Amino acid sequence: MDKFLNANFKWLLLAAGAYYWYTKEGGFFDTAQKVTRPLTRHVAAALAEVQFAINDSNYIKYPNPGFYLNPDKLDSAQRVIDKTWLKAMYMTHDDHGDYIEQIFDANLQLKAPYIPLIGQLIDASSIVTALKG
Q1: Residue 113: helix, strand or coil by DSSP?
Q2: Phi-psi bin for 64: left (phi > 0), alpha (psi -120 to 50), beta?
Q3: Which letter does DSSP use for residue 111 in this model?
């Protein structure tokens, strides 16, 4: 063991230093992530579009407008906490954007007349019914 340490001490020290430099805050790995993270989202989006073109598929669209207002997607103040769900609802039907803008304010908090719709189907008729009280 003594011979091993004497012969390989410099390599062990180099490996420990490289590991420290690689993992510390502001080190190589942290810097590399900060540089590549903005690029990877754009590359992933472009690859998804290429895959859609190759597979002759596209985004999922609902045939009829309307979506379920899941209570798990709102916090205790009826504010949207799951932005991915919100984006998906926008993309599944062209009318959903109008519904979302009608029932949520600029801070993505559910407007008071629409609170009874939590856990219900959101469509044009349910929005009108909620406004009537």
Answers
A1: helix
A2: beta
A3: P
Strand, coil or helix: 127: helix
- Whole-prediction pTM value? 0.56
C-alpha to C-alpha distance for 98 and 110, rounded to whole angstroms: 14
Token pair of 25 as six digits? 């805050």
- Do you know the residue count of the chain? 133
Nearest to 110 by CA among 81, 64, 78: 78
Positions of E strands within the chain: 67-68, 121-122
pLDDT tens-digit series, residues 67-114: 899 999 999 999 999 999 999 898 888 898 999 999 999 999 999 999
Q: What is the rounded distance in angstroms from the CA atom of residue 85 to the CA atom of residue 72?
A: 10
Interatomic CA distance for residues 120 and 130, integer angstroms: 11
Question: 72 exposed, middle or buried (CB, 10 Å; 0-12, 13-18, 19+)?
Answer: exposed
